[in-house]
Amino acid sequence: MFSQFRNKFPLTDEKWLEYTSYFNRIEVASKTTLLEEGEISKKLFLIEKGCIRVWFNNNGKDLTTQFFFENKSVASIESFIKKMPSPVVVETIEPSVIWWIHKKDLDKILEEIKEIPELRDHLIDMLFNRTFDYMKYFVSFIKDSPTQRYLNLIEERPQIIQRVPQHYIASYLGVTTVHLSRIKSKLVRKK
């Protein structure tokens, strides 16, 4: 799992083995909750295989905020960093193989590597990319119609269209499954 990341991190073999030994591998079924809303996040997850969605409950209706696939890390960042109750649920939507690291172990690694410019810059880039994704999602909800959000999804993240059940896609787009079906039918008729 970690071999594909090895060339991105300028560490000695000894340090690489030490850091990767902090990760624990688990295989879980679809619909496995990895973090409950309100729970303090103490684990960061790295997906080897599968798909995870992040969602929250809004008056009994679940709203999906993001999907993560292979080779991506997932956590309730607010909860993980600030030790506050998680505003979201982290849940698998496919049978998944996941590696997790405990916050105390990740904190130890981060403390040791913060003086290595390449690693520090890589982590900063990763955080900014995640923030950029959330901002883009937020702005799209303000300025784009549901049809345009769906077209953007097809263009920018086709993996979601191919792998994620329609009711989760509808939740992500902020529409009902019936409305999503209408959008898809309308687009097919236009072709």
Across the major sheet, the strand order is 1-8-3-6
Shape: elongated
Global Rg = 18 Å
Structural class: alpha+beta
**Mean pLDDT rating:** 89
Describe this protein's structure.
With 191 residues, the chain is α+β, with helices and mostly antiparallel strands. Helices cover 50% and strands 23% of the residues. The protein has nine helices and eight strands. It has helices at 3-6, 13-21, 77-82, 103-113, 117-143, 146-156, 158-163, 166-173, 177-190, and strands at residues 24-28, 33-35, 43-49, 52-58, 61-68, 73-74, 89-92, 96-102. The longest helix is centred in the C-terminal third of the chain and has 27 residues, at 117-143. The chain starts with a helix and ends with a helix.
Brief rundown of the structure:
This protein is of the alpha+beta class. Helix content is 50%, strand content 23%. It has helices at 3-6, 13-21, 77-82, 103-113, 117-143, 146-156, 158-163, 166-173, 177-190; strands at residues 24-28, 33-35, 43-49, 52-58, 61-68, 73-74, 89-92, 96-102.
